[in-house]
Amino acid sequence: QLDAYGSYSNALINYVRNSTINNANLLRYIEENNSVLMEKINLELEHNTVPEKYIDKYIEDIISYNRTQGENGIFTFSAVNNFQTIFNIIKIDNVRLSEEIFNRLIEVCKQTIISDNQILSDKYSSFNLLFQIYFSQIHDHNWEKLTDVFQSNRNTLLIHSDLIDENPIILSIQLNVMKSIFDGNYNLVINDILKLSDENIFEIKRVISFLQTIFEFDKFSPNGEFIMFCTYFCLNMTKHYSRNIKMNATDLLIKLTKYEIVNQIILNQLSNMMDNSNSDIKLVIVKNIDKIISNGDYKEYIIEKARLDNHYLVIKYANEYRMENSNE
Predict the structure, then answer these.
(1) Which residues, in sequence order, are CB contacts of 19 under 8 Å at separation 6+?
(2) Is 25 helix (H, G, I), strand (E, B) or coil?
(3) How many CA atoms lie within 13 A of 279 on its CB side?
(4) How many helices (H) does the chain have, and how many strands (E)?
(5) Could you count the other beta carbons within 10 Å of the beta carbon of residue 36?
(6) pLDDT tens-digit series, residues 202-227
(7) pTM of the predicted model, to two decimals?
(8) Cα dist from 108 to 146, 150, 267, 322, whole Å
């Protein structure tokens, strides 16, 4: 599945790391066609024993990359996103960073975000990595001061060097979410999202991808107004003409079932989707049935609908769920 920037690299790395089948042929193909990506995959597969050693290497790569980015008007687009790779290492392996690496990561993310010569995907991923660090690490840091630094550098923060999307709103949304975490007011975030155009598919993909990321953090506790707004935003996006947007909006709805204020609304809508939506959305629901927060009866209700569907994959996953849970 493509990420928010049309790249398969992060999805490919996650697949190889988590797959239980023999991927020798796939790895051979990658090695023959993309040596840089192969190097990153090897690093990710090998980092488990001393993760900070590899994180430190990625930091050095980022510093070197940032130093030359934009020189003489030349910008390079890397095959692999180092910020996302570090994000994956911390998240998947539940890494507890040393204070030194903790501070180095924050600094390199800050410098990337406030620079006026970095590409959009690096700034976007830097923000995501900062949220990962904020919610998962125990070291003290003056996060409100960091947010103030971003606010004071807002004009350069919003500048990027991509050839598309002259004024992407995602960076403003990420900055305003960071600000909202401390002041509790999500109105600026809501206003930003309301500016989205249905025609700007790349922007919508980025926003949904970011919301998927931020709502995965158990410690993220926005106010009820923002949770309700995101719920109705997702419900609207499940009717978008883009297949990718519809599927990811449905996935985000499932994540939002953990909030009691919208739980019943979402469960009712997911049930309706099993009756009226296409097979793509039904597959997202059935494949993620375990992530839906509800009582057992509701899940059984969804599975029974899926077993009566006319799409073979929907039926297949429903039957697999039934078999796996038959003895519970």
Answers:
(1) none
(2) helix
(3) 12
(4) 18, 0
(5) 12
(6) 889 999 999 999 999 999 999 999 99
(7) 0.81
(8) 12, 13, 41, 47
